[in-house]
Design a protein that fits this description.
It contains 15 helices and no strands. By secondary structure, the protein is an all-alpha fold. Residues about 330-334 have low confidence and may be disordered.
């Protein structure tokens, strides 16, 4: 009787994790499209010729700051504000900080550069490969078991991402497309590592606090270690950062950061509730949502056959990964 009650409780917990993981993916797709729109307005448009990377990297820095503030407000409302500094003094807290470096300056830099240089459709599709990397790393370092259907789903997601990116856009639209694709590959590695490292750290750290720390650590790393070098050795990065606070168009970036902040908040909770590999696979449904929201906001952008087929493959793969919650519990408990 007690065993059945405990199983039912775990089942509800896992179902909730699957749901919020899927919603996190939808919100991340929306946030990426809105962020790409923000890059086309001032003050970012004026800095486009200063450096190839200044706009996306300053945008990433600002995005982490705003998302961190959103998460801080949520944690303050829950009475967790004082826990930030206490956790930073612990070993699990330092592990979360390491995950923030993988997910922030490494992965997010690649992601934002991809948005800027290759466009939202291709960036979201290519970075959708990261669960495959994460799944292998989870198997090696966390001993996290994945069912046969789970592996099929992950492979479908990866194959779908490849199909989506089969046809490159016109060079006139994204002249630095190849550089953007390389940046996307960097993002996949960083996010794969982040999921594994943070899953390990969250064994002893509240997921709500883990994501709060992740945003601010990433922002500090950007501000101190990245901005001084985005346009060579100079102050251009800081000038754009400051200019963003005086432009009304920055509200678009704030809106994107708000959506991304909520997305990652639920993503970290999903990692804790369903396992890192499954949460990552659910999260990459953002590539499908990116196509949908991209079509809504970029009405003139044509959706080709490969984008549609690839997006459907990713969606089916995510369903395989989610599977039956009861089966997920059996795999995790064995």
């Amino acid at each position: 009787m007690i065993t059945q009650l405990l199983f039912d409780k775990k089942l509800r917990y896992t179902k909730k994790g699957i749901t919020i993981g899927a919603i996190a993916g939808m919100l991340w797709g929306l946030g990426g499209v809105v962020m790409a729109i923000a890059f086309g307005y001032e003050p970012f448009a004026s800095y486009a010729d200063v450096s190839l990377y200044i706009v996306p990297l300053v945008g990433a820095c600002l995005g982490d700051l705003f998302a961190g503030l959103v998460t801080l407000c949520i944690n303050c409302k829950k009475g967790k504000r004082k826990e930030y500094f206490r956790i930073l003094k612990t070993k699990p807290g330092l592990i979360i900080c390491l995950g923030a470096i993988f997910g922030g300056p490494i992965a997010m830099s690649g992601y934002y550069c991809g948005l800027y240089l290759a466009g939202p459709f291709y960036t979201m599709a290519i970075t959708a490969i990261y669960p495959a990397i994460g799944a292998v790393l989870c198997r090696i370092f966390l001993k996290e078991k994945i069912s046969k259907n789970g592996w099929i789903g992950i492979l479908l997601c990866v194959a779908g991402a490849i199909v989506v990116t089969y046809v490159a856009p016109s060079g006139e639209v994204y002249p630095n497309f190849i550089v953007g694709i390389i940046a996307c590959i960097l993002a996949t590695i960083g996010w794969g590592m982040e999921g594994v490292v943070c899953a390990y750290g969250m064994d002893l750290v509240d997921p709500d606090l883990a994501i709060g720390i992740r945003w601010f650590v990433s922002f500090i790393a950007y501000f101190i270690c990245v901005l001084p070098f985005v346009a060579g050795f100079g102050a251009a990065g800081y000038k754009l950062f400051a200019a963003a606070f005086t432009s009304p168009w920055t509200l678009i970036l704030v809106a994107a950061a708000f959506v991304n902040g909520i997305s990652y908040f639920w993503y970290y909770n999903a990692i804790n509730m369903t396992g890192a590999s499954r949460a990552m696979a659910l999260m990459i449904t953002y590539s499908l949502w990116g196509v949908i929201f991209g079509w809504i906001f970029y009405g003139s952008v044509s959706i080709t056959w490969n984008i549609v087929v690839g997006a459907v493959m990713i969606f089916i793969g995510a369903v395989f990964v989610a599977g039956k919650p009861s089966e997920i519990l059996n795999v995790r408990d064995n």
